[in-house]
Amino acid sequence: MSVAFRRESDDEHLEPKFEVPIPPGPNWVTPTGLALIEDRVAQFEALVAAEPEETALAAAKRYLRYWKARRASAELIAPADGSSVAFGTRVTFRMGGQERTIAIVGHDEADAGEGKVAFTAPLPRAMMDVEAGERVDFNGKAEAIEVLKVEPI
Predict the structure, then answer these.
(1) Which single residue of 5, 37, 62, 108 has CA 20 to 30 Å from 117?
(2) How far apart are the first and last CA of the chain?
(3) Interhelix angle 31-50/54-73, nearest 10 degrees
(4) CA atoms within 13 A on the CB side of 36
C-alpha cells in the first residue's frame, strides 16, 4: 500500500524529546549548589508522583533523570581560602572602566542575573589563580581585567 494512503498518527508530527544536556567536564559544586541539586531532585520526585497528565509526566521524568545524574556526579569542592581567584570565590574586578563582582560556581548554580558564573565560562577561566591587584589579558586585550578583591563565598 502506498504511503499516501496510510493514516498517520498525531505522534509522528511531534518533535522528539531528547534528554536534558549535561554540561561537559567535572560537576564541581559549592555547598549551596549541592543543596540546589537536592532540592531539584525532591521537587521533580514529588512532581512525578503527583502528575496525572502523560506529557507533563514525561517531561518531569526527563528532568528528574537530569537532576539525579547531576547529584550522582557532583564533586563538592572544599571552600577556597580567598587568596586568589578560584572556584567558590567572589571576585570584584574592573574591566572596561566598570567595576563588577561575580561569584564563581558550578554549572547548575550559575545565574548571570545574580552574578553567579560557571567556572568554565571564559571570564572566570581568564582570572583563575590571579590575586587581588593583578591584571590579566582577556578577549585579545592586554591587561583588560584588574582583579580588585577576592573572597570566599
Answers:
(1) 62
(2) 67
(3) 150
(4) 16
Distance CA 1, CA 11 (A): 21
- When mean pLDDT is compared over 20-24, 49-53, 57-61, 69-73, the highest value belongs to 69-73
How many whole angstroms separate alpha carbon 28 and alpha carbon 78? 10
Q: Global pTM?
A: 0.83
CA dist., res. 51 & res. 30, Å (int): 31
Distance CA 121, CA 103 (A): 12
The Cα 50–Cα 1 span in angstroms is 44
CA distance 4 to 89: 62
Pairing of the two strands 74-76 and 116-118: unpaired
The C-alpha atoms of residue 52 and residue 144 are separated, in whole angstroms, by: 54
Largest CA distance in the chain: 76
Confidence of residue 52 (pLDDT cuts 50, 70, 90): confident
Residue that the C-alpha cell 573572597 belongs to: 151
Question: pLDDT over 90 for what percent of the chain?
Answer: 77
